[in-house]
Structure formats: structure tokens, C-alpha cells
Amino acid sequence: MSKPTAELAEVFSSVQGEGLLIGQRQVFIRFRGCNLACEYCDTPNAFTDEPGILEQTPGRRDFVPTPNPVTLERLISLIDGWLRGWPGVHHSISITGGEPLLSQATLLTWLPELRKLLPIYLETNGTLHTALKPLIKDIDIIGMDIKIPSTSGCTNLWDDHRKFLEIAAHKELFVKVIVGAETQDWEIIRSSELISSVNRNIPLIFQPVTSIKGKVEVNPVRVLELQEIACRHLAEVRVIPQTHKFMAQL
Ligand code: SF4
User: Is the pLDDT of residue 2 over 80?
Assistant: First the structure.
């Protein structure tokens, strides 16, 4: 039987710029493809047919093109070299995209092996609950989105998000909602109620829409109002923009 491979966009070392692991150094493995088409999508390289790019030295941006698909052996060899040469630097491996759960068949084989190197952090749009279920045992931390219509343009994902939350809540988990100038109170109420129906202690992070240069475009008073609404339902609600953009990190 052939070994599972994956279509990867890029592999690199950087600091996590979003969510609860903000500031931690991670190995990022970015998978190609997504099941959604959000209006603010900021990972266009997850959708091209060009070769993937792998960083050779962690954090030095010495990328080399690498034909897809990429094998697990190639990846393990690269990351293992980084961990030997730069011990203690990396906190975890970020499995990101696109939407990495589209590569479920590959991840079934890859995650147990990658997890021998570092803890596994899954960044996901929080919709592919059927794909998550058999993988959950090999994941340590999950950062999932709830996509609200005003910023994503996506509608009718509420039921998928609920099913995803119920599975993901078995691990360390936080939820991220991207908020913008057009975000409505009802979207925040519905998101917060959804999370609290599973566990009100799951942290919720509002990520105000952040421009490519790191400027937050949402009225600061409005962001505080949205936080106040969510705090009626949840124990922990934070506001964190995309910090990697103003640090010029990847
Ligand atoms: S879920 Fe993420 S990768 Fe997919 S379209 Fe939306 S922003 Fe882009």
C-alpha cells in the first residue's frame, strides 16, 4: 500500500501570531485546499498549484521549492534536524491551512509520528467534525473558528460548528471569531450561546479584522461592546488582533 502524502503550501518556523498560543515559537505545516471560501481569506498560497516551499533553516526564510506531494519521511527529517540543532526553541507543531482536516487520511498516519517530536496544535475552521473524530486522540490543542456571516460571508455553519465543538472540547480548546465593522450583536450572542452550551469555560477570542500591515480596522468601542455581550455567556473572552502582521512575521 502506498504511503500517505500531502499537498503542502509551506513549512516554516515562526511565532504564533493569533489565539491563546500567541508568541510561542512553532513549526508551521500549511496544508493546501479548503472547504470554505471566506471573504477575508489571508492564505492565498493555500490555493495555488505551485510547488510547496520548505524552509531549510528554522526562521531564516531560506525557502526552497519542493514538489508536491510531500512525504512524511521528508517532513520528519526536516523537523528532526531543527529540533536537534535548535533544542528547546519550538513549543509545538501547528497543523494549519487552508483547512488541514481535508487531509484526514494523511493526518491519520502523520499525527502520531509528528507528535513524537512535539505537541500537535490544530488550527481549523471548525466545520469538518466527521474528519476530526478519528484524529482527536493525536491532537493536543485545538484553535477552531466560528465563522460569522458578517466577516466570512459564510452562512449556515452553526450546526457543523456545534458538532465540531462537542468533539474538540475533549482536548485543550479555544474558539476564535473574526469580528469587523459590520458584525451584528446577534452573531456574537449566537456564537457565545453555542460555546456555552458545550462548556462556558472554553475561551473565546475576538480577532478584529487586521490589515496586511497590522492595522486594526474595527472601531475600538465597538470591539469592547462585542466583548461585553459575549461575557454574559462565557467565562473568558479576550480580544487579540493578528500580531504576526505588525511584527512582519509569517
Ligand atoms: S477557512 Fe481559512 S483558509 Fe479556508 S477560506 Fe476561510 S480563511 Fe481561507
Answer: no
The tally of domains found in the chain comes to: 1
CATH number of the domain at 89, please: 3.20.20.70
- The answer, yes or no, to whether any atom of ligand 1 lies below 6 A from the CB of 108, is no
Cα–Cα distances in Å, from 109 out to 2, 82, 85, 112? 12, 21, 26, 7
Q: 17 pairs with which residues across the strands?
A: none
CA of 152 to the centre of ligand 1 (A): 9
Domain ranges, residue 200: 5-246
Q: Which atom of ligand 1 is nearest to the CA of 154?
A: 6
For residue 166, is it left (φ>0), alpha (ψ between -120 and 50) or beta?
alpha
Q: Is 16 annotated as a binding residue?
A: yes
The pLDDT of residue 246 is above 90: no
Smallest Cα–Cα separation from 201: which of 163, 173, 160, 239? 173
| pLDDT value of position 59 | 96
- List the residue whose alpha carbon is closest to atom 6 of ligand 1: 38
46 CB less than 6 Å from ligand 1? yes
Give the up-direction half-sphere exposure of residue 46: CA atoms within 13 A in the CB hemisphere.
22
**How long, in residues, is the chain?**
250
Check residue 171 and give its pLDDT. Answer: 97
Residues 198-233 have pLDDT tens digits of 999 999 999 998 877 778 889 999 999 999 999 999
